[in-house]
Write a structure and sequence with these properties.
By secondary structure, the protein is of the alpha/beta class. The protein folds into 2 domains: 3-147 and 285-370, Purple Acid Phosphatase, chain A, domain 2, CATH 3.60.21; 153-266, no CATH class. Helix content is 34%, strand content 14%. The chain contains 10 helices and 13 strands. A hairpin with an 8-residue loop joins strand 7 and strand 8. The protein is globular and about 50 Å long.
């Protein structure tokens, strides 16, 4: 029986665009998960940047309770991403305090006290396990949320520039796009050192009650730093909370926070994300035939696209999201790489495959059900 993988649920989103808080969409997912041997929740499962932690966990509870019933005892592995990085922070800190060796590609642990234990309790007979920063689904198939790709982006997202700023403050060697060699190799610990402070900052804003109708904390930070009153353009919901501002590209490059480029077309954003995750594969030495990731909300490759390949030859697949982003959708699912509802399936043999649980819905039906109509 296959292992299923879903990512980017963003349960508790402040924009109320997280589809799996609605019973109809949960039913579609349970149908897609029928008969699976295990489930991997591949990051950004609970949205911890828009609300206080207790409120976010409460909003996620119906999903986890029904998930446990649907899986009928099958195990669940949670691989945190950037929006729910807090779920793994205490665990990582305990490892450091205990003198554990540096992070490798997969570390596993059972939930102790805290929010992960609460989610585990909600699953009933299904046991929850943590894995970070990724998980080997089977030999040759590796899965990770994909947030490490932010260090290699050429798109001026909040997190890309925030990570670059942390690198400068800590005196770290930047890990931007460029040739990969022995001197440029990095370990997961180095990604964590540069990126975790950005995640902790945005989580702290949410816990301090920073959520408003204006959007996510990262969007509001950008608005406060910009010379105008509002952002000129969002990076189309691709990395949630990532906002492009007037002059941001030139300023960022002059400050040494780049290289970033001003082209924010959907095609460029897609290519940048694929190139950046390919860079992560090379930097971390991930020797896999297939790598599955999320983070960008861009499922794929689509049927009309050639295979996505890292420079090492690793085939890349993205599990998209379960978030409704109407501004990104085409008229039909077939022409919409940001259409929600993707599930990855990994069998005991053969290449991983993607199924699309919501593609039967029209654009109008998707919008109506997403609004609770």
């Amino acid at each position: 029986m296959p292992t299923a993988i879903i990512s980017d649920l963003h349960l508790g989103s402040g924009a109320d665009d997280d589809l799996l808080r609605r019973p109809g969409f949960r039913e579609a997912l349970w149908e897609a998960l029928a008969g699976v041997d295990a489930l991997v929740l591949l990051g950004d499962v609970v949205e911890l940047r828009d609300r206080p932690l207790v409120e976010a966990i409460e909003l996620a509870t119906p999903f986890f309770e029904e998930l446990g019933e649907a899986l009928d005892g099958a195990p669940v592995v949670l691989v945190p991403g950037n929006h729910d990085h807090h779920l793994v922070e205490a665990w990582l800190e305990r490892r450091r305090l205990d003198g554990a060796p540096p992070l490798e590609l997969e570390q596993r642990g059972l939930p102790e006290e805290g929010p992960v234990r609460t989610l585990d309790d909600r699953l009933g007979r299904s046991e929850l396990e943590l894995a970070y920063p990724g998980i080997w689904i089977r030999p040759g198939v590796y899965a990770t949320h994909g947030h490490y790709l932010d260090r290699h982006l050429t798109i001026p997202t909040f997190e890309r520039l925030g990570v670059a700023a942390v690198e400068r403050i800590l005196g770290m060697q930047p890990v931007g796009p460029g040739p990969v060699g022995p001197s440029g190799a990095v370990a997961p610990e180095q990604y964590e050192r540069a990126q975790a402070p950005v995640y902790a900052f945005l989580f702290a804003l949410a816990q301090a009650g920073a959520r408003t109708e204006a959007g996510s904390p990262s969007a509001r930070v950008w608005a406060a730093l910009s010379p105008g009153d509002t952002p000129v353009a969002r990076v189309r919901g691709w990395l949630l909370g990532a906002v492009a501002l007037p002059g941001a590209v030139g300023v960022a490059n002059r400050l040494g926070l780049g290289p970033v480029r001003p082209d924010l077309s959907p095609a460029t954003i897609s290519r940048a994300g694929i190139a950046a995750i390919g860079e992560v594969v090379e930097r971390l030495g991930i020797e896999a035939d297939h790598l599955i990731f999320g983070h960008t909300h861009r499922r794929g490759p689509m049927a009309s696209e050639a295979a996505w390949l890292a420079g090492t030859g690793t085939r890349l697949l993205n599990t998209g999201s379960w978030v409704h982003s109407p501004s990104l959708l085409g008229e039909t699912a077939a022409e919409s790489p940001y259409w929600p509802g993707t599930v990855g399936l990994v069998d005991d043999a053969g290449p991983p495959r993607l199924i699309h649980a919501l593609d039967k819905l029209s654009r109008e039906e998707l919008a109506r059900e997403a609004s609770g109509g």
